[in-house]
Amino acid sequence: MKSITVAELAARTDTPLIDVRERDEFAGGHVPGAVNIPMSELGSRLEELPAEAFDVICQAGGRSARVVQALEAQGHDATNVEGGTGEWIATGHPVEAPSA
């Protein structure tokens, strides 16, 4: 399974990012540009995944690792983001959240 750090994620510019956290977690703040496809909905939303290589993020890296393993088995070119959104926020990277 391919993995990158949040620092490597921050340096990427053209790689789609899929956030597999649940909707309420995503709404609380996410990496700018991330698309939310919750792990619990992924099976019914596979057609929404990018055709090209993409990164997968969750809160700490566990759920995204499981998703990447499953998607790789289906032929997708997916990369896990180690440390997840929690580490992204902790290291001071920008966060998007819907305005109230």
UniProtKB/TrEMBL annotation:
> What PROSITE patterns does the database record attribute to this sequence?
RHODANESE_1, RHODANESE_3
Please indicate which superkingdom the organism of origin belongs to. Bacteria
Domain Rhodanese residue range list: 11-97
Q: Name one Pfam family in it.
A: Rhodanese
- Which parts of this chain are annotated as the region Disordered? 78-100
SMART domains attached to this UniProt entry: RHOD
PANTHER family for this protein = FAD-DEPENDENT OXIDOREDUCTASE, SULFURTRANSFERASE YTWF-RELATED
Q: What is this protein called?
A: Sulfurtransferase
| Source organism per UniProt | Microbacterium murale
